[in-house]
Every structure is written in structure tokens, then in C-alpha cells.
Design brief:
single chain, 606 residues, Leucine-rich repeat, LRR (right-handed beta-alpha superhelix), Immunoglobulin-like, 14-stranded parallel sheet, binds 2-acetamido-2-deoxy-beta-D-glucopyranose, Cys-rich_flank_reg_C, leucine-rich repeat, Ig_sub, signal
């Protein structure tokens, strides 16, 4: 787009050389004379292009080593990018008051003197990307009251000191990515009252600079990308009450989000992508009732459990593509009245049940491509909605059963051939005997298996109708076998094996008889089960304790009453009398603490 003017370089090249030499000799007055001399009416620096846009001076990629002379004073856009500028002195550009945009990106600037941009009162955009800046001294950006965008990315800045941006009261966007930033002083961002978005990316920060960020009370968007930070401590982003969009992208060592890490925030968009989260951080999200979009894509999250998201009452979109999702529970999105977009493309889902959604008809977008879907009766609902739903770039395809492998959901006709999208109810094929006897203390094992399509789940119900779990003395093993270790008398009863899948269930009950082992009274074989209830020789049950206390308390009550009676009688017979009565009172103690004296009470009268 920019015209190259190699032909006209001979004379102006000298001009530039002189200018840069003078600049390097830091002799600003002469330099300015040159700047002024170079202009005549609406002139144009010889190396630049002033014709392609009105009020613009384009001097990009001209091997310039200093700001060229002759820039018209009414210039609004000055593009000096991709040159060899190495320094900017104070007041160098002050003549260009109408300037709105200054592009100094991709030069070799390593120092900016305080006041370098003095006088650019109307400047809105300042680009310093791709230079060699190491230090941003306080005062460098003074005299830029209108600046709204400052791009300092791709430099070598190591730290931001207090007050580094002190006078940029209008700044709305600050780009500081791709620096060597290791430290941001707590007061570095003071004065940036209007800053609305901040991107910190590819820096050497090892913690989130919370105290510095807390000064950005007007911040609405914060992006923290490609940082080697493993933890977002509780309260790290406190003070950002206006923040609505938070993006945490590519923190490879972030394994979990602690419960308080988002406290103080009221977000509408939250993205934690390309991190190492292994589960949805429900607890940390708990208070975000205004959240509308949640993006947890590219994390090793394997499941979405039932009803855990219901506190996100305004959630509309959940993005979880490229995760390790193997299951989305029924009722996973219940309570989410506004839910309309689910992106779970490129996961390990074999199915997605209609029951996951509070109302599947409210769903507008469902990205499900790239999952090994089993096209059976569980996906019929999807087939029904396939013309209405927005599937994104590609519609989901069946991975099995074999006859429909690779076929897009969209490609099925309305009349399905027999055997398509069907299920077969669970059916018990093999089980042990219907009646089992076991001796007390022995182990009992019940087996049960069968088939169905999809593969059924096996569960067991105990004698009291309780569903048995995977742990404990009585437990269901991984293969569906029921195991009772150390059988007890109370285990007697019926055990029901239930095979179920989406198409139906089948059940079978087995009776367990427990044979009491002959053992002399007092030395029971199953010691574990019975010792707890056996009274020890010095054990007092609660009733016994009450009796002891009452018996101990009665003499005390009697003696106290007697004493008061005596005193009353004495004082009546003697008229007025000074009471020098002292009770040495030993309060009753819980039994056992001081041997036999524990529940005895004495009262002495002197
Ligand atoms: C920042 O990290 C990069 C890459 O890890 C390294 O080369 C550079 O020296 C670091 N800078 C500082 C100031 O630590
Ligand atoms: C991600 O987490 C897993 C364990 O949860 C760990 O083994 C792995 O090293 C982590 N990856 C990174 C890059 O920290
Ligand atoms: C949270 O943000 C929403 C807008 O997203 C706003 O309506 C609501 O008042 C805010 N709540 C608080 C407590 O600031
Ligand atoms: C088994 O099926 C019956 C009716 O078909 C149903 O009432 C019952 O809840 C099912 N049980 C399980 C565990 O799925
Ligand atoms: C154990 O004692 C109870 C009475 O306390 C008695 O009825 C029972 O027969 C005894 N059993 C044995 C095996 O001695
Ligand atoms: C008693 O409990 C211990 C462990 O608490 C266990 O190893 C042992 O097998 C139990 N004995 C019986 C008879 O259940």
C-alpha cells in the first residue's frame, strides 16, 4: 500500500542523516530549527508519503534514524513505524499539537525521556510496540491528557514502577504484553481511572499483580494470557468490582481454581481456557449469578455432574470444546432457565441425553461434532431437532453402530430404516443361586450379569431397600458383583440385582441366610461387631449416671436446707445480727474425674 520512493532518497537521505546526527548529539534547538525549516505551507518530509490519506504523514519502513523534518503542523496521523529510531527527546514533537495518532512501533527506541510526548494534547493513540524499552520512568507519558490507547507490547520492560502511567487520565486501553515483566509495583496503575481493558500476556510474572490491578476501579475487561502462573489465590482480583469479562488463557500449570479466587467479582463472561483444570470449579463460580458465558475449553475436564451449575441462574452459554468430556449427567443443566448454547465439540462423549437440559426446545446452538457418538435411541431427540438446531461448522456424526458409522445426523431421512436409533432393554442372563447361606464372619459373593443396548448398569438393593454403594463391608464391585465381607446376622434378607439401561430394566432377587456360629457366651467369634455394645465392668450407662448424681445430690440439698433453717431460727431469736457465714462449696463434677469424691458435695458452716 505504501509507495516506495527509492528514487527520491539521494538528497533527502542526507537530510535525514544530518538530522539524526544532530539528534544523537542531543542538540535539540538546532534540530527544531531544522524541523521548522523543512516545512513550507503544507509540505511533506521527503522520505514520507503525505498524499495517500488526508492529514496523514506515512513514513513507515524508510530506514529513518530520527524523526524527519518538515512534518506539516496540521498532521493528525504520523506513522514512523518500522524505522530505526533509537531515542525520543523531550519536546521533540511538541509542535504537532493536532496529532491524533502516533505510530512508533517496530523501531529501536530504548529510552524515552520524561516529557518526550509533551505538547501532544490531542493525541489519542500511541503505538510503541516492538521497541527496546526497558524502563518506563515516571513522567514519560506526561502531557498526554487525551490518550486513550497506549501499546507498549513486545518490548523488554522488566518492571512497572509506582506512577509509571500517572498522567494518562483518559487511557482506556493499555497493551503491555510480550515484555519481561517480573514485577508490577502496587501503585503502577494509579491514575488510570478510565482504563477499561487490560491485557497482560507472555510476561515473566509468577503471580497475579493483585494490588496493582485493584487500583483499576474502572476496569471492565481483563485478559491474562500465556502466563506461567499456577495459582489464583483467594481474593487475588478483589477490588475489580466493575470487571465483567475475565479471560485466563493458557496457564499450563493452573490445575484448579480455589474456592475464593473469584471473590469480589461480578462477571458476565468468564473464560479459563487451555489450562490444566480437571473439573469444573463449581465452588469458585458459586457467587457469579450474573454470569452469561462460561468457557472452559481445552481443559482436561472429564464430566459435568448433575445439577451442579444451577446457581448460575443467568448462564446462556457453556463452552467446553476440546476437553476430555466422557459424560454429561442427566440434569446437568437443570436450573439454567436461559441456557441456549452448548459447545462440547471434540470430546469423548458417546451420547448426550435429552434429560441433561431443562428444556431442550430452548437450545439454539449445539456443537457436538468430533465426539464418538453412539447413535441409539438416546439420540433420537437430537434427530428430531436436527433441522432446527445450529450445529456450528459441522453437524455431529455417528461413530457407531457399524451400519451408520460416519453418517451425519443431518443426512438421516425422516423415516428411519428399521434398526436405526434403537435400544434393547437390559436383560439378566446369568446369576448365581437364588438362595445363599453363609456362616457368620464368612464372606458372601453374589454375581449378576446380562446385556442390553446400550450396555446396562448393574446396581444392587439391600434387604431394607437401600441402594448399595461401591465402598464399605457390603459393596458392589466394578464388574457388578456384590460382596459382603464378614457376614453378620443382620445381613440376612433379600438382595435384588437391577440391570438397567435407557430402554428398560430387569431385576432378580437372591436370599441370604446367615448361619449363627456356635460359640460359648462371652467369647464371640465376631468380636468387631459386638464388643462395642458390651458393657464393661466400670461402665455407667446414662440411666446409672442420673441415679448416682441424684443420690449424691440429696445429702447436699438436705444439709443446705438444714443450715438455712438454723440460720433463720437463730436470726429470729437474736434480732439483728451480722452474717459471717461462709459456704465452702465444692461443685459437683462429672463422674470419674476425681475418683469417688467426684459426685459428693460438701458444705461447711463456720
Ligand atoms: C523471561 O522469560 C524468558 C523466557 O523464559 C527469559 O528468556 C527471560 O530472560 C526472562 N526475563 C526475566 C527478566 O526474567
Ligand atoms: C496437569 O495436571 C496433571 C495432573 O492433574 C499433571 O500430571 C500434569 O503434569 C499437569 N501439566 C502441567 C503442564 O502442569
Ligand atoms: C452485576 O453485574 C450486572 C450486570 O452484568 C448488574 O446488573 C448487577 O447490578 C451487578 N451486581 C452487583 C452486585 O454489582
Ligand atoms: C425399572 O423400570 C421400572 C418401570 O419400567 C421403573 O419404575 C423403575 O424405576 C426402574 N428402575 C430402575 C432402577 O431403573
Ligand atoms: C448365651 O446366653 C444366653 C442367655 O444370656 C442363652 O440364652 C444362650 O443359650 C447362651 N448361648 C450359649 C451358646 O451358651
Ligand atoms: C475386625 O476388624 C479388623 C480391622 O478393624 C479386621 O481386620 C478383622 O478381620 C475383623 N474381624 C472380624 C472377625 O470381623
Amino acid at each position: 500500500m505504501l509507495p516506495t520512493r527509492h528514487g527520491s532518497r539521494s538528497k533527502e537521505g542526507m537530510d535525514i542523516d544530518i538530522a539524526s546526527r544532530w539528534a544523537s548529539a542531543s542538540w535539540p534547538p538546532l534540530f527544531f530549527l531544522l524541523l521548522l525549516a523543512g516545512r513550507s505551507g503544507r509540505g511533506c518530509p521527503a522520505a514520507c508519503d503525505c498524499a495517500s490519506q488526508p492529514q496523514a504523514v506515512i513514513c513507515a519502513s524508510r530506514l529513518l534514524e530520527a524523526v524527519p523534518g518538515g512534518i506539516p503542523p496540521d498532521t493528525e496521523l504520523l506513522d514512523l513505524s518500522r524505522n530505526r529510531l533509537w531515542g525520543l527527546q523531550r519536546g521533540m514533537l511538541s509542535r504537532l499539537e493536532p496529532l491524533l495518532e502516533l505510530d512508533l512501533s517496530h523501531n529501536q527506541l530504548s529510552t524515552l525521556e520524561p516529557g518526550a510526548f509533551q505538547g501532544l494534547r490531542n493525541l489519542l493513540t500511541l503505538r510503541l510496540r516492538g521497541n527496546r524499552l526497558r524502563i518506563v520512568a515516571p513522567g514519560v507519558f506526561s502531557g498526554l491528557p487525551s490518550l486513550t490507547l497506549l501499546d507498549l507490547s513486545l518490548n523488554q520492560i522488566v518492571l512497572f514502577l509506582d506512577g509509571a502511567f500517572g498522567e494518562l487520565g483518559s487511557l482506556q486501553q493499555l497493551e503491555v504484553g510480550d515484555n519481561h515483566l517480573v514485577f508490577v509495583a502496587p501503585g503502577a496503575f494509579v491514575g488510570l481511572a478510565k482504563l477499561s481493558t487490560l491485557t497482560l500476556e507472555r510476561c515473566n510474572l509468577s503471580t497475579v499483580p493483585g494490588p496493582a490491578l485493584a487500583r483499576l476501579s474502572g476496569l471492565t475487561g481483563l485478559r491474562l494470557r500465556e502466563l506461567d502462573i499456577g495459582r489464583l489465590p483467594p481474593g487475588a482480583l478483589r477490588g475489580l468490582g466493575q470487571l465483567r469479562e475475565l479471560e485466563i488463557h493458557q496457564w499450563p500449570s493452573l490445575r484448579a481454581l480455589e474456592p475464593g479466587s473469584l471473590t469480589g467479582l461480578n462477571l458476565s463472561h468468564l473464560a479459563i481456557t487451555h489450562c490444566n483444570l480437571s473439573s469444573v470449579p463449581f465452588q469458585a463460580l458459586g457467587h457469579l449469578s450474573f454470569l452469561r458465558v462460561l468457557d472452559l475449553s481445552q481443559n482436561p475436564i472429564s464430566s459435568i455432574p448433575a445439577r451442579k451449575l444451577s446457581f448460575l441462574v443467568r448462564l446462556q452459554e457453556l463452552h467446553l470444546s476440546g476437553a476430555h468430556l466422557a459424560s454429561i449427567a442427566a440434569h446437568a443443566f437443570h436450573g439454567l432457565a436461559a441456557f441456549c448454547l452448548l459447545d462440547v465439540a471434540n470430546n469423548a462423549l458417546q451420547t448426550l441425553e435429552e434429560a441433561a437440559f431443562p428444556s431442550p426446545s430452548n437450545l439454539v446452538t449445539l456443537r457436538l461434532a468430533g465426539n464418538p457418538l453412539i447413535c441409539d435411541c438416546r439420540l433420537l431427540w437430537l434427530l428430531r431437532l436436527r433441522h432446527r438446531l445450529d450445529f456450528g461448522k459441522s453437524p455431529p456424526a455417528c461413530a457407531s453402530p457399524l451400519p451408520v458409522r460416519g453418517k451425519n445426523l443431518r443426512d438421516f431421512s425422516d423415516i428411519l430404516p428399521p434398526g436405526h436409533f434403537t435400544c434393547r432393554a437390559a436383560l439378566i442372563q446369568r446369576s448365581g443361586p437364588r438362595r445363599v447361606s453363609a456362616e457368620e464372619g464368612q464372606q458372601a459373593v453374589f454375581s449378576c450379569s446380562g446385556d442390553g443396548d446400550p450396555a446396562p448398569t448393574i446396581s444392587w438393593q439391600g434387604p431394607q431397600g437401600i441402594w448399595l454403594g461401591r465402598t464399605g463391608r457390603v459393596r458392589v464391585l466394578e464388574d457388578g458383583t456384590l460382596e459382603i465381607r464378614s457376614v453378620q446376622l443382620r445381613d440376612r434378607g433379600a438382595y435384588v440385582c437391577v440391570l438397567s439401561n435407557v430402554a428398560g430394566n430387569d431385576s432378580l432377587s437372591t436370599w441370604l441366610e446367615v448361619i449363627q456360629t456356635e460359640s460359648p457366651n462371652g467369647t464371640l467369634s465376631d468380636t468387631n461387631a459386638t464388643t462395642l455394645g458390651t458393657p464393661g465392668p466400670f461402665f455407667l450407662d446414662s440411666r446409672g449416671l442420673v441415679v448416682v448424681l441424684v443420690v449424691g445430690f440429696l445429702p447436699f440439698l438436705t444439709s443446705v436446707t438444714l443450715c438455712f433453717g438454723l440460720i433463720a431460727l437463730w436470726s429470729k431469736s437474736k434480732g439483728r445480727v451480722k452474717h459471717h457465714t461462709t459456704f465452702d462449696f465444692v461443685p459437683p463434677r462429672a463422674s470419674g474425674e476425681r475418683g469417688a469424691g467426684g459426685n459428693r458435695v460438701t458444705a461447711k458452716l463456720f
